[in-house]
Amino acid sequence: MGNRLAGKRALVTGAAQGLGAAISRGFVREGAQVMLTDMNAAGAQATADALNDEFGARSAFACGHDVTSEEAWQAALAAAQDAMGGLSVLVNNAGIGGEGDIETCTLTEWRRTFAVNSDGVFLGCKYALAHMKDSQPGSIINLSSIAGLIASHAMPAYNASKAACWMLTKSVALYCARQGWDIRCNSIHPTFVDTPILDGFGKVSSAPIEVIKGKLARQIPLGRLGVPDEIANGAIYLASDESRFMTGAELKLDGGISAM
Ligand SMILES: NC(=O)c1ccc[n+]([C@@H]2O[C@H](COP(=O)([O-])OP(=O)(O)OC[C@H]3O[C@@H](n4cnc5c(N)ncnc54)[C@H](O)[C@@H]3O)[C@@H](O)[C@H]2O)c1
Asked: Is the pLDDT of residue 68 over 80?
């Protein structure tokens, strides 16, 4: 156990698996209480139960939550308030890959991708601030992607929705500063990290998923995919008071890919 996040109360979206689960575990390990939310309510509960087994009762809580729904955001924030007595950290992590290139991506798919990756982050920032104002210092962390900064020929909806998340982060950061609140807002931009989201690449290729992952890894200067704890470590820094002078910034955790 560490204490870098002692006294912090966090809500992490998309926390049933992948990066959200790793971030939640890192937060609890560093002394925070965490409300894990996910559209997969049973998965979020199972991940929270495992954290309570590992770190002690009332370390983690869970609730079902679709980040595209305004009502669901209000319910999730109320659940966090009830369970933990306040909210000082929000991690807008839930996200989806988005399918199709510019010719094959349907308008429905474009809107579905934006609903989760962009609208979901907007709603989270919009409604969490009312709670976070009472628990300053606060930190909002938005999971964008290196794909929000660097385009690919094959993922227009993902690129554009993650770029929207990146710029929204800066607007929220400046708004909070203008209000005189000690609430920061920063984005994280990972390259490929080994989580279930990469399975989406398997749907558009006939090659086995391990071959696809090897190909992705070869695009990264460090020569490998990221592991979830490497992203969780960045989120711990942004959630903690160690990053108290950092707002409106982007943390690139990309194995060097954006340096090329
Ligand atoms: N893994 C990577 O390579 C990578 C790279 C860059 C950015 N990211 C971003 O990091 C975040 C987490 O990705 P991951 O790799 O853990 O993905 P993942 O697919 O493993 O997990 C995503 C989680 O979000 C949940 N979710 C999806 N839609 C939701 C909704 N509408 N409401 C609530 N929950 C919802 C899913 O149920 C799932 O538990 C995403 O925003 C993703 O775009 C991931």
From this structure: yes
116 C-alpha to ligand 1 centroid (Å) = 9
Regarding the beta carbon of 159 and ligand 1, being less than 6 Å apart is answered: no
Distance CA 69, CA 71 (A): 5
Atom of ligand 1 nearest to the CA of 115: 31
158 a catalytic residue: yes
For the CA of 44, the closest atom of ligand 1 is: 39
Q: How many angstroms separate the CA atoms of 139 and 238, rounded?
A: 7
User: 93 alpha carbon to ligand 1 midpoint, in Å?
Assistant: 6
State if residue 16 touches ligand 1 by the CB under 6 angstroms criterion.
Answer: yes
Residues 6+ apart with CB under 8 A from 241: 137
* CA nearest neighbour of 38 among 58, 57, 11: 11
Chain centre to alpha carbon of residue 106: 25
Name beta bridge partners: 10: 34, 89
Which of 69, 91, 96, when mutated, tests ligand 1's pocket best, judged by the most ligand atoms within 8 Å of its CB?
96
pLDDT digits (tens, 9 = 90+) for 206-243: 899 999 999 999 999 999 999 999 999 999 999 999 99
CB neighbour list of residue 6: distance below 8 Å, 6 or more residues apart: 30, 31, 32
Tell me the HSE value of 204 on the side-chain side, using a 13 A CA sphere: 12
| Rounded Cα distance, 220 and 197, in Å | 18
Task: Identify the structural domains of the chain with CATH numbers, from first to last.
Answer: 9-195+227-259 (3.40.50.720)
User: Of 240, 145, 238, 151, which is closest to residue 190 (Cα–Cα)?
Assistant: 145
pLDDT for 202 equals 73
- pLDDT value of residue 203: 74
